Input
Amino acid sequence: MIFKEKNRISSGYARTGTLEIAGQTIETPIFMPVGTQGTIKALSTEDISELGYQLILSNTYHLYLRPGTEVLDHFGGIKKMMGYPKAMLTDSGGYQVFSLSSLFKFFHDGVKFQSHIDGSHHTFTPAKVLDIQNSIGSDIWMVLDDCAPFDSNSKRIKESLDRTHRWAEDSVRHWQDQEYSSKLFGISQGAFDLDSRKFSLEKIQSLPFSGIAIGGLSVGEPREWFIKVIESLAPFMDPLRPHYLMGVGTVPDILDGVRNGIDMFDCVLPTRNARNAQVFTRKGKLNLRNEKFKYSDAKIDDHCTCKVCQNYSLGYLRHLHKAKEILALQLSTFHNLQFMKDFMEMIRNSINTGEFLEFSTEWKNLYNSSN
Ligand SMILES: [Zn+2]
Output
């Protein structure tokens, strides 16, 4: 078992715990920054270690297409290429096939697709995506699944579940046959049909995965559907394994996830928004291009200890974004990831002191009203 629960709130599912992975003890709930192509955009590996992140995410689809497994094998994996010594989770690439590839077609044992870069033809199977993740050298691997669109009809949902569950079994078999030492996570699906969601969760939890993920959320659905799904699953999630809500990372969504027993989150939003001049603070979001910061010598966030908030004014950051300087992207990304790290620590503290629900209400007001 890689997960240990520490504290749980008296009424509800919010919990703190630890994840043992790649020789590290990681406090949960945790936010994982996304390093799509073997880099968290605009940050160096030294920045990641200065921020103190112990677990980051990378994308199998992207690394398979570029630099490719031959290069990854040559360097002994992406962590060695990056000079990054800590833990990494990789997705299976399935979601990118469906969202980025110009053409894809399912067959019984996998999916054929064309690269979004050069139109070349490729095939992913449950076994192949694990072999690719082995070349990447990540520590937590996700299985290939079929993420049906959120408004799928019952026929499409059934097809997605049959495929997802069959492929989950194929993945476990291959992982065991190869005696891989990484940790394998299963993904439950079911779009927005609550019975299908529960059925899929139970099926995935019947297999010997180290962790359990909920996929197919935060894909453009109405927010109340998202809440309904995680609330309906919370009572049925295996408390002995870590729970990962894939692709979710706004402040209100993380709070609702934690309230429903989620331990792990990832999202491109804090880094993507930073590159678009939007930063997060303890008072809500700021748009750094705003005219009102033109002469401001204030910091992004008075309570933030990051190097950006120690050294740079809003007026300077506004100027950098207006002038489209590379440094604007670097500094804003650095601050937002410091914010996410601090925010998760505040969540953990509020659970440990029994004040999570009050904390959650306060922050949801702050972030819903500043949208
Ligand atoms: Zn800061």
